[in-house]
Amino acid sequence: MAFDGLFTHQMIKELSFLETARINKITQPDQYTVVMVIRANRKNNKLLLSAHPNFARFHITEQTLDNPFEPPMFLRVLRKHIEGGIIQSIQQMGNDRIIEIIINNTNEIGDRIIRHLYVEIMGKHSNIILTDEHKKILDSLKHLTPNTNSARTLMPGFTYEFPPTLKKYNPYELTTISALLDPSLTHKKAILNVLEGFSPVAVNEVLSLGNDIDASFKAFMDDQSVRPVAFTLNDKEDFYYKPVTHASHIASFTTLSQLLDTFYKDRATRERVRNQTNDLARHLSSLLSKNEKKLAKLVNELEETQQMDEMNLYGELITSNMYMLKQGMDQLETINYYNNEMVTIPLNPRKSPAENAQHYYKQYNRLKTRKQHAIVQIEETKAEIEYIQTIQMQLNHIELEDIDDIRNELAEQNLIKKKHKKNDKKQKKTQDIDHYVSRDQQVMVVGRNNLQNEYITHKMGRNNYLWFHSKDIPGSHVVILDSNPTDGTIEDAAMLAAHFSKAQGSSKVPVDYTEIRYVYKPNGSKPGFVTYTDQTTVIVTPEAHYIESMKKNDSSKNA
User: Fold this and answer.
1) What is the pLDDT of residues 302-311, one digit of tens each?
2) I need a surface site. Which of 103, 204, 240, 266 has the fewest CB within 10 A?
3) Is 328 found in the same domain as 418?
4) Residue 50 lies in a domain
């Protein structure tokens, strides 16, 4: 991502209004994120600091993040030293991705203290460190011991040192760069080696302005206007503080904070969900593999029972030709009176003719029982496979608050062990449904899990509402909350059903829709499983950015 030193420089300028503001509250929603509630401009502003390996950043956020019941140790240290303090300054170290926040506060006995909070945005090495005025480390989000890192130590009691980096030049202190470049390297690599805080995105923008490196560099640095954008370039989504050449699918934003809040919202949530459902994903994958092997074995057994009718025929022919047989014969050659063809029947010479007939009748009855059992087991195993695939699909779309619903559901199906927690709350209601608005301003709802699927289909939906589901593919239920949907709304709902299915990302996905009056839940069936009739099938190609544009914000879900 293009969170480089230039982007950091612009973000520092955007956050300058927080200087002289008070830190009212500090929380730590997860192991990588700290949120400080800062009172400035007569409103509370939530400053998010993240040291996530993939999503490291800092900006004002409008999101509401859940907090653990027990505050982590790092959070306790932050609250002790800087909660209630006044931000003296927010500054960037050179043009690097290191931010220093200096805070004035008072200690327990009322003495004035100075604290420095360093935010290092460096990919997997990102960190948040709190020091005193002498740069003695009080604590850090991630600890680095001498055994794990030979370059520096980040532990309480040690002196804070900046990360070891190559000596580069601050681009804001230069007017020309051609004399600094290594002529043996390409321009792109040479610029990256010389300029501090320059990302490949910034270098490409400089090179796109012309062949004169110095003139292009000056033009790029002179244009310090901030026009935040998210874009797609070479099939990858990225962002920057101003438009990028040759990018497509550009979305503009008012502030850098708004850009980052939007860009990282779903990514960060998906990462948190993935971390909390990794065990479920592995378990479901193992169950799916086991059931697929079981299904293959049952299909083979069913094929073996095809000899059942032959065994019954042999028993009949032996019985009807009993007068011709004597003990000691090893075969019977006779006419099959069903088709008038000769047939040779193997006999056990040690058994009497009646015993040979009984042997084939027993084989017939055994295979008949196996066939009936295999047919039932095959249907049950197919249903189990479909159910597991549905849960796997739902794990790609659920939100944090849905994880417990999924776990409880799997425990009720005896697919995982139920965890008994102290003060376990009753199962939450299912009103927190995702709402979408079609191109014709009609509301549609989507179930993120089976509990919600059943709720929107059998509770929210009326008999004449249209219900949608991907055809023969695991997916979510979609319902249009309107008795007279337009053709555009029907197409939008079909795209939602295709997007929230196993076929997500595919083109030309078949989707069935019918009135809810024709949707039935069989007795004893798995959660979320339904059958339906009188359906119409449409083919749609969902596009993620269009799906996202239809989603209503949280405050309007229950409107």
Assistant:
1) 988 888 889 9
2) 266
3) yes
4) yes
Q: Which two tokens stand for residue 74?
A: 């790092």
Q: Do 410 and 440 fall into the same domain?
A: no
Residues of the chain with pLDDT under 70: 1, 419-431, 553-559
CATH number, residue 65: 2.30.310.10
Torsion-angle region of 508 (φ positive above 0: left; ψ -120 to 50: alpha; else: beta): left
Contact in structure between 165 and 125 (CB atoms under 8 Å): no
Q: Torsion angle, CA of 416/417/422/426, rounded to 10 degrees?
A: 50
| CB 240, CB 2: distance < 8 Å | yes
- For residue 376 the two structure tokens come to 């039932």
Same-domain pairing of 418 and 458: no
d(CA 146, CA 442): 60
> What gap in Å lies between CA 136 and CA 157, rounded to an integer?
6
**CA–CA separation, 89 and 100 (whole Å):** 8
**Total count of residues recorded for the chain:** 559
Q: Is residue 145 part of a domain?
A: no
Of 396, 428, 460, the position where a domain reaches its end is 428
User: Is the separation of the CB atoms in 392 and 500 below 8 Å?
Assistant: no
Please check whether residue 49 lies inside any domain of the structure: yes
Domain range enclosing 470? 434-556
What does the pLDDT read at residue 2? 80
Q: What is the predicted pLDDT for the residue at 147?
A: 86
Residue 112 DSSP SS3? strand
Same domain for 44 and 58, yes or no, is: yes
- Report DSSP letters for 417-480, one per residue: PPP--TTPPPPPPS---EEEE-TTS-EEEE-SSHHHHHHIIIII--TTSEEEEETTS-B--EEE
Kindly report, residue by residue over 135-185, the tens digit of the pLDDT: 999 999 999 998 888 889 999 999 999 988 878 999 999 999 999 999 999
Spatial CB neighbours of 9, under 8 Å, sequence gap ≥ 6: 92, 95, 172, 197
Do 439 and 416 share a structural domain? Answer: no
Whether 243 and 312 share a structural domain: no
Show which of 140, 163, 189 is a domain's final residue. Answer: 140
Q: State the SS3 of 7-73.
A: HHHHHHHHHHHHCCCEEEEEEEEECCEEEEEEEECCEEEEEEEECCCCCCEEEEECCCCCCCCCCCH
pLDDT value of residue 424: 47
Overall domain count for the chain: 4
**pLDDT on residue 375:** 93
Q: Residue 249: its pLDDT value, please? A: 78
519 sits in which H/E element = strand 519-520
**Which amino acid is present at 544?**
A
- Position 556 scores a pLDDT of 40
In DSSP terms, 323 is beta-bridged to none
Is residue 96 a part of any domain in this protein?
yes
Write out pLDDT tens, residues 5-17. Answer: 999 999 999 999 9
Report pLDDT for 185.
93
